[in-house]
Automatic annotation (TrEMBL):
GO terms for biological process: actin crosslink formation; microtubule bundle formation; protein localization to microtubule plus-end; regulation of microtubule polymerization or depolymerization. Residues 26-154 form the Calponin-homology (CH) domain. This is Calponin-homology (CH) domain-containing protein. It holds the Pfam family CH. InterPro entries: CH_dom, CH_dom_sf. SUPFAM superfamilies: Calponin-homology domain, CH-domain. Residues 181-201 are annotated as: Disordered. PANTHER family: GAS2-LIKE PROTEIN 1, TRANSGELIN. One of its GO terms (molecular function) is cytoskeletal anchor activity. One of its GO terms (cellular component) is actin filament.
Amino acid sequence: MADQSNIQSAACKSIRPFRSSEEYLFAMKEDLAEWLNTLYDLDIQVDNFMEALETGCALCQHANNVNHIAQEFQQLHPQAVQGKTIPQNEVLFQSKNVIPGSFIARDNVSNFINWCRHDLGIQDVLMFETNDLVQRRNEKNFVLCLLEVARRGSKFGMLAPMLIQMEEEIEEEMMDQLVENSKPQQEGQNLGGRPPIYPPARAQRATFCDFRNLDEL
């Protein structure tokens, strides 16, 4: 399995000013490629990113892996996922002798799309269509969807791309800042004889929650 330092190396290259959306798209593909290589010992490069995934095999394999991790998380932390939808429907796909662009490849990609939409509940604005991947009609939508899948998986404890990890670190800093800003108000309440109102513990937020991601912010 590839070293996780590869992901960190990709992230260092990504933290720089981008002169165009194409450069930022390149950086996202770079991080996602390193992430998939680390998870599944693949050999995906930025230059062949779409080609390496167009049969849908790796995508469906990842979907089933998310299902497995999510169900394990549910067993270990039942209270954390109470009332939440846990992805669990197996994604059927064919992995042997799949020709890119063939009906089987399209079927694999379509099954992954249905899983993203129905099991993860990913919004249409972040979804892609089969031809976006197979015929390269919309790389951006495919990359954004894959990032959202990674973001959802990280809530169950899966390794996330560095872009998502940095996103979570920023959100933690924002939460810490909110805690600091709330302290004077709590002290004033204590002087009035009222019990203090404590913010949610950071550890609870790290398990499973629906806090808004940076795209929404």
